[in-house]
Amino acid sequence: MDRPLFLLGVLAASFAAAAPARAADAPIATIDDLVAANRILAHENVVDGFGHVSARDPQNANQYWLSRSIAPATVTAADIVTYDLDSTALNANGRTSFLERFIHGAIYKARPDVKAIVHAHTPAVIPFGVSSVKLQPVFHLASFIGAGAPVFEIRNAGGPATDLLVKTNALGDALAKTLGNANIALMRGHGMVAVGTSIPEAVFRAYYTGQDAQLQSEALRLGGTPTYLNAEESRSAAQTVTGLVDRAWQLWKRAITP
Fold this sequence. Notes:
alpha+beta; L-fuculose-1-phosphate Aldolase
């Protein structure tokens, strides 16, 4: 047999044998979703020029992906940097890192179930982090808030004179402790974090946390005491809503597609 043809046959057989696994496709798909998440959050006004979203590496639970320090609406695949769980960049190659990347590493370290994290400064949630009024679910799409959003007080971890940014592993660990097993946490005078078992779920929770904050504020302005979802309603509605995340995700992706 002609040697070039023989070699081509061997290569073709090798590729055919490897094709079913498609191991490289999973990270590519996750990065594509991470880029989309950045743009969706900006398009839906969850973030503006600030804020960020990360994803745990599906092939290495001790690493996560986060864009370089730029506005979310401008993120591309070329901007994604890999970090370890101490939030040390593994392939920065001159790309700058977010000061608050420690939010992500600390939560991934504390919560093995979390696969994606959103940090945002959504204005509607800020009043609930600085007042005695707890953010609670007032409608079913925010049922994941449960008994109410915990509030991270950075003074307890960093003293009275921080700039309110989570810029160290120690502050990240303190935030992760406040989050505990919750799906979201507010950050006093700063914003919020939302976590999920997937990128679409984290985006969904970040979006509907802001929607719930707006609705609760409106209900409070009407006077009287709002009727919040009780524990049983929250659990039941959250199970239903989990199955509907992809519907919103596909709609949001369509809105950002040229």
